[in-house]
Amino acid sequence: MVNKKITSIDDLSAKDIQSIAEQAIKFKKSKKNYTRKVSKNIFNLFLEPSTRTTISFELAARKLGHNSININFEKSSLSKGESFNDTMDTLISMKPDALIIRDKNNFSPREIEKKNKIPVINAGDGTNEHPTQALLDYCVIKEIFKNKKIKIGICGDIKHSRVAHSNIKLLSKLGYQIHIIAPSYFLDKGGIEKINNKIIFHKSLNSVKNLDILMMLRVQKERIRKNAKNLMSSFKKNFCLQNKHLLNKPYLMHPGPVNRNIEISDDVLNNYPNSLILRQVEMGVYLRMACLKYILK
Question: What is the number of H-type helices and E-type strands within the chain?
Fold first, then answer.
């Protein structure tokens, strides 16, 4: 039997994505907690800071009647100097039924799954991908627009954003029209065109009209190697979302946490009526329930 995995959007077909999304929406509607005669043991290994993703995975496991065991860097032997591989060998020897991992290193979830042959979900790996964030974003979009093919803008630090990379893959796989809004210093245009050569690029929020969804991204200051402060200042000046950019009233998304007045102004963040940001957080629990159900079949 081949283990299911979600280490990348590439692991999922369009049919898989639709099935997971439909299951998440069902979970949200039912709001039911489950009990089991035999619970699975799910290890959550978070080696980078997280609030929304950690808590939502823990809640998801509990709502499904499984055991959730949380391991963070400060409480692991990695903080004492143990190598990553030795830590993984130790955890795998305890026979988890599934592993959820967030790591600063690109592709480590995929490598762990290949080596250990257990179900793995990538909760964010470096600048590479964050597939469950893209899946939950899609669930929110699907709730509102059903299967209508809408125009979606993604604005911000595309280059360093694992959320952007997963969303671009997922939305491209499902045939959505994607508009990328970003300065050149936050953009790897060639890499994006390898995923989808029909994406439309913009250098200003003012040049994008009639979007149905505008997805703003966090500036990844911890991943910017040079001139982070200057780039943040430049981005704030030219790309911080203001009410003047929202005259067509698109729905607004952001994966969180928001750098206030850098990506989104206080006025928009506090008062914009079409914000979906907290709805995304709520959906995170139900989507991760659906992902756990998918990999534990």
Answer: 10, 9
Residue 99, in any domain of the structure: yes
Residues 43-87 have pLDDT tens digits of 999 999 899 999 999 999 999 999 999 987 776 778 888 898 999
For 228-247, what is the mean pLDDT? 93
Query: Which residues does 123 contact at the CB level (< 8 Å), separation at least 6?
Result: 44, 46, 50, 53, 54, 57, 100, 101, 102, 109, 130, 132
pLDDT band at 224 (very low <50, low <70, confident <90, very high): confident
**DSSP per-residue codes, 15-66:** HHHHHHHHHHHHHHHH------SS--EEEEEE-S--SHHHHHHHHHHHHTT-
Q: Are residues 153 and 123 in the same domain?
A: no
Same domain (yes/no): 93, 166? no
CATH number (domain holding residue 250): 3.40.50.1370
Parent domain of 268:
131-280
DSSP-assigned states of every residue in 73-101? GGGSGGGGT--HHHHHHHHHHT--SEEEE
